[in-house]
From TrEMBL:
The keyword DNA damage does not apply. This is Peptidase M48. Residues 16-177 form the CAAX prenyl protease 1 N-terminal domain. Its cofactor is Zn(2+). Residues 183-386 form the Peptidase M48 domain. The chain crosses the membrane at residues 34-60, 72-95, 115-141, 148-171, 261-283, 304-321. Pfam families: Peptidase_M48 (PF01435), Peptidase_M48_N (PF16491). PANTHER family: CAAX PRENYL PROTEASE 1. The lineage of its organism: Bacteria, Pseudomonadati, Pseudomonadota, Alphaproteobacteria, Caulobacterales. One of its GO terms (biological process) is proteolysis. GO terms for molecular function: metal ion binding; metalloendopeptidase activity. It comes from the Bacteria.
Length: 497
């Protein structure tokens, strides 16, 4: 197989599963998204200019201050209201970029009312959290005017950590319903994968992501005890099979096992220190440029639009860096999936379904600047290279397929079974159970590598070497001699008894 398999041809074959018009549509959506970064930044700068020139935050700051000095409370209120004003003035742009445009490309079926209500809820949450963050930030500016930017990085790290810890528990359930993967082959497979690599098997969820997006996706979120892997129901609506589930969930388990969210948050916190340092130097000229004559300086919370404008420009310039950091983590998660679960074709099939919102074959420079995930074409090629370098044995594939077909939906009966024992019933959906007079045990079974392996839910594992004779089949456990077994057809009504 390694001598005849062509990774380049296999990659081209996967990409050819989508017609040229689908690739053209994906490219149009992706390239338009690149321009959205620039236009979004310009909209943010315009909104900052309007808020500064209106003087509304200066007026509110004076009213909140009143006769008593309440800097923490004033900063909190001004911070929350600034976020609200910014969102209201940016609403037409948000409607276009976040709802109308994805809907035009078929990436969401959500009605406008649903999008608007969720956006309003998100705004309230953001304003509350943002108010607290800005209260802390401005306290640092007042207490340590020369080094506030250094402490500001620590404050950012704390808020990121708290947000990651609490989001899966209290925020994400507001917008979606998260449920454990239901009993069946998918859950059995995912639980087995989790046990294989030491990931808690009770942290695998399915959520109704199709409410907001038609995109084929999964994610990992949370921190420490709240961390979880979540698959959107869109995956299954688009026909994800077990191989795809293994490839995708293996990728997300890679994020979980390698703590990518933690180190990305740490790097982002370091970048926040650099950004705040530059804000400290650029605030005064930016304030003059925006016409903030009534703003009393960096420590005045009424200058938040100026601070936001400077950060907008810095974040836009830092796009290649932040995207590259995330791309590194995504590439590492792909490799984790391939190393631990060896599903290159499953991963490739899943990746093809993401082309609709991320063009498959960008130029290298375009990928570095604009892509926060490796290009789909590049990821599929890496999976195919892995497949070429790690060929699965061909000699056993055909016999395994014959044995699996023979054993599935049958009861394996050993000779001279004790009274009351009925043998091992193997269902076609990948489950098995033993029936006998002391109760029954169930779990998963697999036929691979010339063996029939039974993994009980209780954690024990038994494997039998499969043999073929002229008259039937044999099973041998450990170093024991092969024993001829009888395969009886499993009736649809058969159950543990």
């Amino acid at each position: 197989m390694a001598q005849t398999f062509d990774p380049a041809a296999a990659t081209a074959a996967y990409l050819a599963q989508l017609p040229p018009e689908a690739h053209a549509k994906a490219a149009a959506y992706t390239h338009g998204g690149h321009w959205l970064l620039l236009w979004g930044a310009l909209v943010a700068l315009l909104v900052a200019f309007l808020i500064v020139r209106s003087g509304v935050l200066v007026v509110l700051r004076r009213r909140f201050e009143g006769r008593r000095s309440r800097p923490l409370l004033v900063s909190c209120w001004i911070g929350g209201l600034y976020i609200a004003f910014d969102a209201v003035l940016s609403l037409p742009w948000s409607v276009y970029s976040d709802w109308w445009r994805p809907r035009q490309y078929g990436l969401t079926s959500q009605a406008f009312t649903g999008w608007f209500v969720e956006s309003a809820i998100s705004l309230v949450i953001t304003a509350l959290i943002g108010g607290l963050f800005f209260a802390g930030l401005y306290a640092l500016i007042r207490k340590a005017p020369r080094t506030w930017w250094l402490w500001g990085g620590g404050l950012t790290a704390a808020f990121i950590a708290i947000g990651m810890l609490l989001a899966p528990l209290y925020i994400e359930p507001i917008f979606n319903k998260y449920t454990p993967a239901p009993a069946g082959p998918v859950r059995d497979e995912v639980v087995a994968m989790a046990r294989q690599v030491g990931v808690p098997s009770d942290r695998i969820f399915i959520y109704d992501g199709s409410k907001q997006s038609n995109a084929y996706t999964a994610n990992v979120s949370g921190l420490f005890g709240s961390a979880r892997v979540a698959m959107s129901d869109t995956m299954f609506k688009k026909g994800a099979d077990i191989a795809e589930v293994r490839g995708v969930v293996g990728h997300e388990m890679g994020h979980y096992a390698h703590h990518h969210v933690v180190w990305i948050a740490g790097v982002m916190s370091l970048l926040a220190i650099l950004a705040f340092f530059l804000v400290d130097r650029l605030f005064a000229p930016a304030c003059r440029l925006l016409g903030g004559d009534q703003i009393r300086g960096l420590s005045d919370p009424a200058g938040l639009p100026v601070l936001g404008a400077v950060l907008t420009v810095l974040l836009l310039l830092a796009t290649p860096l932040t995207n590259s950091l995330i791309r590194i983590a995504e590439s590492d998660a792909d490799r984790y999936s391939l190393v631990h679960f060896d599903e290159p074709d499953g991963l490739a099939k899943a990746l093809v379904k993401t082309v609709e919102y991320r063009a498959a074959t960008p130029g290298r420079l375009e990928e570095i600047i604009f892509y926060d995930h490796p290009a789909v074409g590049r990821r599929i090629r890496r999976a195919m290279d892995w497949k070429a370098a790690h060929p699965k044995p061909v000699s056993q594939a055909a016999p395994d397929a014959v044995a699996k077909a023979a054993f599935a939906d049958h009861i394996v009966v050993f000779p001279n079974l004790p009274v009351g024992m009925d043998g091992i019933a193997l269902k076609a959906d990948g489950t098995w159970f033993e029936r006998h007079d002391f109760g029954w045990a169930k779990g998963r079974y697999a036929v691979a590598g010339g063996k029939l392996c039974l993994d009980e839910e209780r954690g024990s594992r038994r494997c039998y070497a499969i043999g073929r004779t002229r008259d039937g089949w044999t099973l041998a456990q450990g170093a024991g001699a092969p024993v001829a077994v009888v395969l009886e057809r499993l009736s649809a009504s058969a159950s543990p008894g």
